[in-house]
Amino acid sequence: MVETHDIVRPPAELSTALAALGSATASAELSRMGIRSAFIQGPVTVTPGVRVAGPALTLQFLPKREDLYPDEEYAEPEKQLHRHVMYHAQQGDMIVVDARGDMGSGVFGEMMLTYFKGRGGAGVVIDGCLRDVGEAKKLGLGLWIRGATPNYHAQTGIVPTAVNVPVACGGTLVEPGDIVVADDDGAVVVPVKLAPALVAAAREHAEWEEFSRIRLSEGGDLRRYYPLSEDAWPEYEKWRAEQGR
User: Of the CATH numbers 3.40.50.880, 3.40.190.10, 1.10.1040.10, 3.50.30.40, which one belongs to the domain with range 12-190?
Assistant: First the structure.
């Protein structure tokens, strides 16, 4: 019998706060905190306008060796680990898949994703492909992928080999339970231990950007308002007070 372990989930309010901030803010703040690049390169959204954040369930693929893995799509289904990552799904979870950038295998299809949605899943980030993409986009999940294929998960060159282990997705390390923030700009991995400080710093940054955006829309000087200059800071503080902040 196959056994895989669950993840340790961070407080849900951290994911909610990070989703509100978005991937660009998360990436920039992580850079200021010393994480050079937390951006998962390669997967792009096929569900424009969706912004989500949640803890990562991880799935690892490796090159296929036919003597170790059944060829038939439905052979010994409980030995197929792409199913097992979904068994752990809870409300708000993200699935992150290291599919090696493979463009021939559809890691999940409509039926598997329907199950994930029913479990409360929020989104899927795959360094590889999905199949049944047209139907999958109707489910209301966030989907970040490299492309589409008609092939099933182990039809060609890769097979699922591990669940909830550290993976390299799009060249970025993802630890099980890391918070993944994803939107139209892509997906960013936030280490849980850095998340509270990131949220606090990003909220302050977002507030002065709100003020700067207003001034720039009124024709204000870019050199004065973005980034917010020292000379403009008293004006910003006055604006904050007027807003009751």
Answer: 3.50.30.40
- At 159, list the tokens: 């097979």
Q: What is the pLDDT of residue 22?
A: 95
In which band, very low, low, confident or very high, does the pLDDT at 73 lie, cut at 50, 70 and 90?
Answer: low
The residues spanned by each domain of the chain are 12-190, 197-242
> Which residue in this structure is represented by tokens 């099933």?
152
Q: Contact, 179 vs 21, CB < 8 A?
A: no
Strand residue runs (E) in the chain: 39-40, 44-45, 52-63, 94-98, 123-126, 129-130, 142-145, 147-148, 158-163, 167-169, 172-174, 179-183, 186-190
Which secondary structure element, helix H or strand E, spans residue 111, and what is its range? helix 110-118
